[in-house]
Automatic annotation (TrEMBL):
Membrane-spanning residues: none
Coiled coil: none
Matching SUPFAM superfamilies: CheY-like
Ranges for domain Response regulatory: 6-124
Modified residues (4-aspartylphosphate): D55
Name this polypeptide is given: Response regulator
SMART domains in UniProt: REC
Keyword set, alphabetical order: Phosphoprotein, Two-component regulatory system
The UniProt record lists the keyword Protein transport: no
GO biological process, one term: phosphorelay signal transduction system
Pfam families linked to this entry: Response_reg
InterPro entries: CheY-like_superfamily, Sig_transdc_resp-reg_receiver
Length: 125
């Protein structure tokens, strides 16, 4: 697993987090998690992350604010991390708002796990 890609799952629901983690571990990805926006930033700054699955409605700092903060990071490796928004409220946001925040792509809830794997592979291999 030394060369496996690391995916950060930012999700406050333990059920969704555990299901998503299992699906991606089966694809040989290394998974780290964050339950709120503060943890997202700490995780990203403490280790190399290849992709973030970002629940938009996480506590402390929401997913849109976390994504903006990632994009503003002085370290270009961090600023370029693909961020895939995950939300049950996609209708509350326009694609323009997602783009403005720096979201790379988005997946609606309930998650289609085939689409999840396909989108993650598209951005991290």
């Amino acid at each position: 697993m030394a060369d496996s890609k690391t995916i950060l799952i930012a999700e406050d629901s333990s059920v969704i987090l555990n299901l998503t983690k299992k699906i991606l571990e089966l694809q040989k990805y290394r998974i780290v998690s964050a339950k709120n926006g503060g943890e997202v930033i700490k995780q990203i700054e403490s280790q190399p992350i290849d992709c973030v699955l970002m629940d938009i409605n996480i506590p402390v700092k929401d997913g849109m604010e976390c994504t903006r903060e990632i994009r503003r990071n002085a370290d270009p490796r961090i600023a370029k991390i693909p961020v895939i928004a995950i939300t049950g409220n996609a209708n509350n946001y326009s694609m323009e708002q997602f783009r403005e925040a720096g979201v790379t792509d988005y997946l609606p809830k309930p998650l289609d796990f085939d689409a999840l794997v396909r989108v993650v592979k598209q951005y991290v291999g």
